[in-house]
Amino acid sequence: MENRKKGIIYILLSSLFFALMASFVKSVAHIPLAEKIFFRNLVGIVSMLWLIKRNKVINLNPITSNSLPYGHYSDFQALHVTSTPLQT
User: Fold this and answer.
1) CA-CA to 67 of 20 to 30 Å: which in 2, 6, 27, 81?
2) Which domain holds residue 60?
3) Does 42 share its domain with 78?
């Protein structure tokens, strides 16, 4: 698929998911704010860890990691979200 079409699809999907998130947050008005924030961030962390693990940016296993306990975070070029390289 062409990069331009991928970008358009990603933009549309992100706006859809932001709208869904806003509607879910408004539909659970009885839940305290702290719990909403916690679970929203929990979903974000889990999805980011999955993305990092899938692209093998860092080793998430601290036992087999040969660098810092949580791996190294300097190789952001390896995070392949799109096929467009980062400009430095």
Assistant:
1) 81
2) 31-88
3) yes
CA 56 to CA 60: how far, in whole Å?
Answer: 9
Q: Which residue has the tokens 């924030």?
A: 37
The token pair that represents 35 in the structure block: 């719990």
CA distances for 61 relative to 41, 68, 70, 79, angstroms:
22, 11, 7, 18
Average pLDDT over residues 52-68: 63
pLDDT tens digits for 49-59? 888 878 776 66
**Domain shared by 25 and 43, yes or no:** no
Q: Do 6 and 35 fall into the same domain?
A: no
Question: Using CA atoms, how far apart are residues 67 and 57, in angstroms rounded to an integer?
Answer: 13
3-state helix, strand, coil in the chain (%, to 5): 55, 0, 45
